[in-house]
Amino acid sequence: MSAAAPLLSVNGLTKHFPLKGGFFGRSTGTVRAVDGISFDVAEGETLGIVGESGCGKSTTARLLVDLIRPDGGEIMLSARRLGVDLPLRDLRRNVQMVFQDSYASLNPRLTMEEAIAFGPTVNGVSTAEATRLAHELLFKVGLEPKRFAGRYPHELSGGQRQRVNIARALAFKPKIVILDEAVSALDKSVEAQVLNLLGDLKRELGLTYIFISHDLNVVRYMSDRVMVMYLGEIAEIGPVDAIYERPSHPYTRALLAAMPSMDPDHLTREAPLAGDPPNPINPPSGCRFHTRCRHAATVCISTPPGLYTLPGERHLVNCHLAIPNSGHPGIEAVTA
Amino acid sequence: MTTPLVEIENLTVRFSGARDVYAVNGVNLTLNPGETLSILGESGSGKSVTLKTLLRILPENRTTIGGAIRVQGTDVLALSGKALADHRGGVVSMIFQDPMLALDPVYTIGEQIAETVMRHEGASAAEGKARALEMLTRVRIPSPERRLKAYPHEMSGGMRQRAMIALALACKPKLLLADEPTTALDATVQIQILLLLRELQREFGMGMIFVTHDVGVAVEISDRVAVMYAGQLVETGSIRDIIRDPQHPYTRGLLAANLHGAVKGARLDAIPGAPPALHAAPNACSFAERCAHAQDRCRAELPPRVTLGERREVRCILPEMAKA
Amino acid sequence: MSATAATFERLATVERSPGYWSGVIRRLRRDPVAMVALAIIIGLVLMALFSPWIAPADPYRSSMLRRLRPIGTPGFPLGTDELGRDMLSRLIYGARLSLLMGVTPVFIAFFVGSFLGITAGYVGGKVNTVVMRTVDVFFAFPSVLLAIALSGALGAGIFNGLLSLSIVFIPPIARIAESVTTAVRKIDYVEAARASGASSMTIIRVHVLGNVLGPIFVYATGLISVSLILASGLSFLGLGVKPPEPEWGLMLNTLRNAIYVQPWVAALPGLMIFITSISFNLLSDGLRSAMDIKA
User: Fold this and answer.
1) Predicted TM-score of the model (pTM)
2) Is residue C34 domain-resident?
3) Model ipTM?
C-alpha cells in the first residue's frame, strides 16, 4: 500500500434499523442493513459498489453523507475523523451525492438556477454569487444557462434533470461525488451521454467517485476498484480487472454469471443461483452467503470468514474457500 | 410456408388528450407459431403500447387505433364482448413488470389460477385446483401444494413473478405477451425467470412477444428482434443479424450503449439528444436529428423500408445506398 | 463560445418559464365552473363590504303591520320576515356575519393546523406522536357535536362561536398537513438539501412550505362550506350570533315558524348558505386540479 493516507477511509461502519411493529411500535426485529464494513477510497479513483436489493449499498451511501447516523464505525476524510477533528460541515462540503430519481431529486417549485444555488447560499455565499456559480455549473454539465436556468424540473427530460443534479452536487466543489444508481433510470442512449459527462468532469475537476449500480457493465466501465456487497457485508473488494477476470467469492462469480449473454450462440444454460436474495432481517449465521452457496461447508455455517487479503494485490475476499487453513474441505479442490 | 400466429399491418395508435400523442406510427410485424420476438426500445418508443394493443387493453375512449392485427387469423380489433374476453387470457395472455398489479391481493394464488381456468374452459372447481397445482409445479415453485394457499404479498419478488407466469399460462395460450417482466428483478433472479420463460415457451409451444429495453435480455430470450424508435420499427431481423450486423444507426448506438466490451475510460460513442415528442405523425425520419449520417432526404421524407433478406428489414437510407 | 462568455451573460437574458402560481392561475382561468364559483364569491364579498350602500332598507327596522309579506311585494322585493323587516336587506347584511363566521375559523385553523401538522410531520418521532395523538382525540367527536359542545361551554356570542369553530377545524387541517409533510420529507430533494448542510428551518422554508401549503390550502377552502353550515347551525341553536343581528343561520331559525305561511321567504337564508358553500367547494375543486403540476 502507498504511504499516503486514503482520501476516504471507512472503518467498521454499521447501521441497524429497528423493525417497528405491534403495539406502541415495539421493536420486533433488526434489519442489519450495513454490518461493520471497512474500505478505503484513494484520491482520484472510482470505487464501484455492486450488489442486489437489500445488500446495503444505498444505506452505505447515505451513511457516508450522514443522511442517516451510523450505529458504529468511523468515517475518515483525509486522515481526519468525523466527529473528532472533522466537523460534519466539512464532510458534507467534500462528499456530495446524486440520487437515482432525477425528478424526485429536484424541488418542483424551484428553477434550475435556484436548485443549484440553494446549497451555496445556505453556506454563506451571496445570492448573486451563487446564481453566477449556478450558471457556470449548468454550462459545465452541458446545459446552456440561457435556456435552462429559468426552467422548472417538469420541463426538462430525465437526462437533463440528472445533469442538473450533478451540477448541484458540484456546487460545493466536493472531492468525492457519490452516484447512487444515478444513471440507472435513464434510457440507454441518454445514459451513455451522462457517463461521458461524468468522465469529463472527473478529469477536469480531479473528482473521486463512489459509483453505485446494479448494472455490472456500467460499473466495469466506470470503476477502478469494485466492492461487491451481500446482506450488509463486503463479499469481495478489489481492482476492477481482478473482480471481473478472477472473481474469488462464489457470490461475485454468480453475479457475473447471471449477466445476460451477448452472444446468441452461447446463451446462459443454467441460473447460477436459485431463489431470491434473503432478507437482511436476521441474516444467516456464519458466512451470510452459505444458504445460497454451492460450496457451503460446515465451517461456513458456523464461522464468518472475515475479509482475507489475497496475496499480491489489494484484493480482499470474504470466503473460507480463499482463506488457507480455514477448515473448508474444498480448499485443495479449488487451489489444485 | 407456415401461417403466421400474429400479423400486424400498418398499426397506428394515437392517444387523444390536451395534446395528441402519436404513440405507434405504422408498425408491420409477423410472428410465427412457437417463435419468440423481442421488441427492443427505450421508454416512449411505443413498444409497450404495441403489446397492449394486441390484448386490446388500452383505454378505448381516448385511443384511436388504425391498421390491422390478426392473431390466428382473427381480427383482434373487431373483437367485442365474449369473443374479446376469450381472446384475453384464453388465446393471448400477458405478464407484467410488476406482478402486484396482475395478481389480486385478496385471493390466494391457487384460487386465482383455478378461477381463470374455470372461467375460460368451463372446468369444475376440482379441475381448476388440479390445474393450479400443475401450473405452480411447472413454473418450478418449491413445495407447490403449500404455495397454492399463499397470498401474493406472502411471496418474494421472484416467486410472485413465477406465480404470475403460472396464472398467465394456466389456459395454455397460443401467444404470451411479456412487458419487461424481469426489469424490476435482481440480476440473479432475472436470469432464473428468463431461463424459465425460455423453457416454458418451448414446452407449451407458444409464440412470445417480449418487450425489453435491455439488449442482453433480448439475446437470452429471443429468436428475432424488432428495434423500435419513436413509434416505428427501425430494424427487424434474427437476433444474430441484429447483434452481429446492425444496420440502422439507432440500433448500433443502442448496442454500444450497453457497454458490453466498452474500453474503460474511453469516451463512449453516445447518441446525442433525446427521443422526439410524438405530438404529430412523423413525415420524416424520426431519428434524423440525432443521427450522424443524416442527410437532407432524411429530414424531408419517411425513410424507405429496405429488405435485406427473409424477414430482415431496415428503415433507413444507408442500406439502400449500400445496395445501389 | 467560451465558458466565460456564456456564463457571464446578463441574468436578464435567461429565458424564464412562467412561475408556478402564474401557471395555476392560467389553468384556473380555463376552468369555467371554478370561474363562476369565484365570481359568486367575489360578489358575496362585495355585498358584505358594501351592504350599507347596496341594501335598500334598514335591516333592523321592524313593523308589526307588514309581517311575512310574500316575495314580490312592492317595496319589499324578497318579502319581509316575521318581524316585518326587509328580507333583501337582511340577506345582504347577513353576508357580513355569515362570511365572517364561515371564513375566519378556517383561516385561523389553517395557520394553527398547518403549524402543528408541518412541525409534527417534519420533526417526526415523539413530537409527531404527541401532536397527532392529541389531534386524534378531537377526531373521536363528530365536528357538529364538538362545535356545539365547545360553544355551549364557552357561552353564546360571535367571538366564542369563532373560537369554537376554529378549534373544530384545527385537527383535520393538522392531519392533512402532517401527512403531506411526511410525504415531502422523504422525497430526495429534501434529502439533497439536508446533504447540503441546510438547517431545518431553511429546508422547511424553501423546500417544504412551497410544496405542502398548496394542498393544505385547497383542503382548507373545502372546509369553508362546512364552517358556514356549522356557524349557521350554531346560530340556529342560539349558540352563535344573537338576534336581532342578521345572519343567515339565525334567520333560518327565526323564520322556521313561518315555513307554512311563507315557505319561499323562509327558505331564502338557506338558499344563500347553499349557494355560498357550494361556490367555495367548486372553487376548491378547481384549485385542486389547477395545482396539479403534471396536468
Assistant:
1) 0.87
2) yes
3) 0.88
